[in-house]
């Protein structure tokens, strides 16, 4: 499907309701007609993805999402498909009641769902149980139906959102549909792109239903999807001094690998010079493994001071530890007040000793680290990742990358971008160290702090997708270094980069 001009824009449920009302007024149509357009878009999606099937079962709730399902049943039957229709309730509300009446007027029968029942025979199940307004766990009767659909062995098409997925947050407070394809209507929904949505949405399509562009132009999105980018070509007369000097600070006893990964990714992302301040015992092995790194053994703040003076950007935290050595280096580095990327134990120390930042700073917590920074549980972070990342930016006065499926990047002014790339293979040790080095390298090359965070997250995730083309399981952080080098120079042959 061609990209819509506003397909990067992501909205909240409250915004979507306003947009729908504005669209109805602008188009001069009824809600029933808009529902019919949604049903037609769903039928088109069904035919594109499963052109050979002849028998479908549509599962309808009592609200407007169910109304979309009833009208899909009408259109599918007219198109020659055999349609079974299961309803959660004996009644429907508002426009959905008209849609149900249209289905029944054409001779369509409705099977009322019985928790002791079984699914009708079908080649495809269509989820039209709950729409964008659901912000709680589904009711017990629906839970049984959702479970049977998920375990039916048949493909699933979800209308607007997979039922049970919170449209605003991407969380699932209870049972939720696992869709193979989700066709979402009018505009992008932010909760379809982060958190649990990664396992529920499947292939995501946007059907705008003919809504005028003025409706989108008049609504500022709550968040936006990242686009694939690379740095511009370098001037022919460039020298290493033009591309900045990153200082990686970390590598407590037994954790040299974290410092090496951060340093090497900074090199592959284009930093002119990369130094590493680490335990003296690691100097030989790091120099031998990657001679381009300038590795220094430091035993405390006094030895770190001259390295800080020469550096233009600090990457603080990979393998740092939280003992006396790491804590002393952490304090000294923060007091230097230089552009900074803070990760891993650098964040854990920050949770113990909070401060706000005045120099350009990027924090890169995973959900557990974010929970410690906010003094809440990891589950609370995942219940609303958008609220969590915005609170982190406010509390620490920094750009924050909340890592995970659908990583979020936010600034203290409310701007928020969502990363659409990445894969489960990246849930392994060392991946965060790479991201720290990449963002630090981009800052060193002159990117603004927001650009460095967004571009760094995008390059990291896209490199992960390219590296995973041979399989996600067993993916190593170091596997990303070669594709990172290519992608940073605008060389891309990965289908998911688009």
What does this 3D model show about the protein?
With 498 residues, this protein is an alpha/beta fold. Helices cover 40% and strands 15% of the residues. The protein contains 18 helices and 19 strands. It has helices at 13-27, 31-49, 64-78, 95-105, 140-150, 197-200, 213-217, 256-268, 283-289, 301-310, 324-335, 345-352, 367-374, 378-383, 385-396, 431-444, 449-467, 481-488; strands at 9-11, 55-60, 82-87, 111-112, 124-128, 156-159, 181-185, 188-189, 203-207, 223-225, 245-249, 273-278, 294-297, 313-316, 340-342, 361-363, 399-402, 408-410, 416-418. A twelve-stranded mixed beta sheet has the order 8-1-10-19-18-17-16-15-14-11-12-13, with helices on both faces. Helix 10 (301-310) packs parallel to helix 11, helix 16 (431-444) crosses helix 17 and helix 17 packs across helix 18 (481-488). Residues 494-498 have low confidence and may be disordered.
Please tag this protein with its features.
498 residues; alpha/beta; Rossmann fold; UDP-N-acetylmuramoyl-L-alanine:D-glutamate ligase; 2 domains; 12-stranded mixed β-sheet; 7-stranded parallel β-sheet; 18 helices; elongated; disordered C terminus
Radius of gyration: 26 Å
Any idea what the CATH superfamily of the largest domain is called? Ribokinase
Helix/sheet category? alpha/beta
Mean pLDDT: 95
DSSP strand tally: 19
Major beta sheet, strand line-up: 8-1-10-19-18-17-16-15-14-11-12-13
Subunit structure: Homotetramer.
Cofactor: K(+); Mg(2+)
Domain YjeF N-terminal: 16-217
Domain YjeF C-terminal: 223-491
